[in-house]
Amino acid sequence: MIGTVKSRELRAARLLERTVDQVGVEERAARFRTRSVKTTAKAEGLRLAVSMCDLTTLEGKDTPGKVAQLCQRARSPMGGYLGPGEGWDVPPVAAVCVYPNRVADAKRALHGSPVKVAAVATGFPSGQTPLGPRLEETRQAVEEGADEIDIVINREALLTGDTGRVYDEIAAAKDACGPAHLKVILETGEIGSYDTVRRASLIAIEAGADFIKTSTGKVQPAATMPVTLVMLEAIRDTFDETGVRIGMKPAGGIRSAKEALHYLVMVNETLGPAWLDPALFRFGASALLTDLLMQIVKERLGVYPRPEDFGGS
Predict the structure, then answer these.
(1) 147, 174, 249, 291: which is the annotated catalytic residue?
(2) Cβ distance 70 to 112 under 8 Å?
(3) CATH number where 165 lies
(4) 177-199 pLDDT, tens digit each
(5) What strands lie across the sheet with 181-185, from one edge to the other?
(6) pTM for this prediction
(7) Using an 8 Å Cβ cutoff, are 236 and 201 in contact?
(8) What is the mean pLDDT of the chain?
(9) Are 49 and 283 in contact (CB under 8 A)?
């Protein structure tokens, strides 16, 4: 056990020695925005992006009926669209994310489908509650049937240099998750530099994160391509050291299909095709789904449908 701890410390130290070149990261991210994805590859990319979407409702006015409606959209994104022809072959989305007390509603509504139920926990979105209640909230969500738990890191501890506490709290949350997958939200809009984003990514991975995620969606800026690239490179470096694949989820602010395709190109060129899978990459952007579906129809019929045909606006 001692040897394992020392090995982890040595690995973390090696990875943290690699500081982020701000200019280089921003230039590389900008190049991905210039890529053009055409014809068959575009059609495949649009459907893949749909399968990677996590739909979310995190409001005080959430009801069982509202959750059920979101779950129906998750199961059948094309819904009642009455476009000509059949066989649209649009997959369900990856997951629906709700508060812990709505997990049971989502599980009922998604019964028999492959769509996962995710729950936010640990004092989402601020994380400014005592650790005990945060962990109990996590256990409650798992007991209700959550497949995935989204937690927020302790930004106060991170920004004051108490990285040991950040690690310990994530590790405790991982233990509380039991069989559920753990997605760790860094809230990159609050933690500052790319070096801090890299450090937080590596701490979360070492502490047991199955996914690292940019944002809660409650803070701006949320997901950006440079920040996502920094996190992808932390995942790549960890994989090179350990052979372990960690998932990635940019969340908030990704609204267009074109931008989603640019993210997929970035993932493929940074991590490889193994990560082009909902098990390892997600979009946390509910508004994105509408534009993806509109683009799928446009590719097939040559005309745009209305956003409201898919529950958009």
Answers:
(1) 249
(2) no
(3) 3.20.20.70
(4) 999 999 999 999 999 899 999 99
(5) 54-56, 95-98, 116-120, 148-152, 181-185, 211-213, 247-249
(6) 0.91
(7) no
(8) 89
(9) yes
Catalytic residue check, 89:
no
Assess whether 6 carries a catalytic annotation. no
Q: Domain for residue 9, yes or no? A: no
105, 150, 237, 309: the catalytic one is 150
Q: Report yes or no on 312 lying in a domain.
A: no
Q: Give the amino acid at 117.
A: V
Q: Is 213 one of the annotated active-site residues of the chain?
A: yes
Report whether pLDDT(10) > 60.
no
Phi, psi (rounded to 5 degrees) for 115 = -70, 130
Distance CA 138, CA 149 (A): 7
**With bands split at pLDDT 50, 70 and 90, how would you rate the model's confidence at 1?**
very low
What is the residue type of 273? Answer: P
Closest CA to 94 of 292, 233, 271: 292
Which range is most confident: 3-12, 127-136, 170-179?
Answer: 170-179
Q: How many whole angstroms separate alpha carbon 192 and alpha carbon 189?
A: 7
What are the distances in angstroms from CA 62 to CA 58, 68, 115, 298? Answer: 7, 10, 19, 33
Partner residues linked to 149 by β-bridges: 119, 182
Marked catalytic residue, from 105, 213, 291, 309: 213
**Domain total of the chain:** 1
